[in-house]
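Re: [help] complex structure
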Amino acid sequence: MAKLVSAGQFTYYARWWLGSVFGRKNALVNTMMINFQCNLKCKHCSVQGNADLLPEPHQLSYDIAKEEMQWGFDEGARVLFFEGGEPTLWKDGDKDLRDLIKAGRDIGYFVVGYTTNGTNVIYEDSDVISISLDGPRDVHDSIRGAGTYDKLMANLDKLSHPNIFANMVLMKDNKDALRRTVEAAAANKHIRGIMLNFITPPPHDQALSLDEKKALVDEALMLKKEGYPILNGTKALKEMLIEDYTELCPYWASAFVLPDCSHHYGCPMRGTESCKECGFTAVREYSLIVRGNPTAIREMSKRFAYSK
Ligand SMILES: C[S@@+](CC[C@H](N)C(=O)[O-])C[C@H]1O[C@@H](n2cnc3c(N)ncnc32)[C@H](O)[C@@H]1O
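Output below.
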């Protein structure tokens, strides 16, 4: 079971929230893309989609990563998330992702998590693990590569972690598989719930029309009513239909660090054409949290505010 948030952590979150209401705009989450290397070539991947534009170097060293963790902490962030690339492939000498997770905890982050395709190894050291699940076996494999679904499921079966959730990106190739994917997540004893996103182009060939998104939001709302563990709040799901979220995006709440040590707020795609077709659900949840929506505050806290 996840532990309850401590009084100190609760006070920090409450002060952060109140500060945001009164105009003190500090980051709460530090998302670090520690590498661009990946063992998969997923059809929808925005990192692959921007491959020609990726700055050098393609990986943070251990020492620089620690400095960047400290930078985010000093900015006010208390939730640390590692992204890639594939974070479980990250290595620097004898150090691997587990050392970064430990360093984040030592600095004082309340919660450390990472996102993984789950085909390499899934480390249980973090408080939260987000595994990418883009369909039932046939669909997931067609998007992520043959055998990736079974590898992910075999790795999940080795775990006893209390806070693993699935992250699904809806796109052309899996828009007809929402129910089957949610059923697969619900049937898996290791997965606590599923977060739904729409693809944020590039690549454009997988992008969904607004009508397709409307149908998917309706289907997701119905699945939620039926009791399936969809983690997106109802209001956040509806706000997924505001494609250009620029005005509502609380970009300051979320700091991003890339392997070249560049710092971004909101997301590295902020201010680009992609921003006008934003499909990231987290942005809606952050926005609802700073607008004081009780469901978003309660549900997102359950997943992301607690230590293991
Ligand atoms: C970039 S991946 C990195 C972590 C890891 N390699 C993985 O596959 O989970 C992080 C998450 O972003 C999602 N993602 C990738 N490209 C995306 C896009 N164009 N729009 C929305 N989400 C995307 C992936 O499906 C994954 O869940």
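The pocket of S-adenosylmethionine is lined by residues 38, 44-47, 83-84, 86, 115-117, 132, 167, 169, 197, 199-200, 279 (CB under 6 Å).
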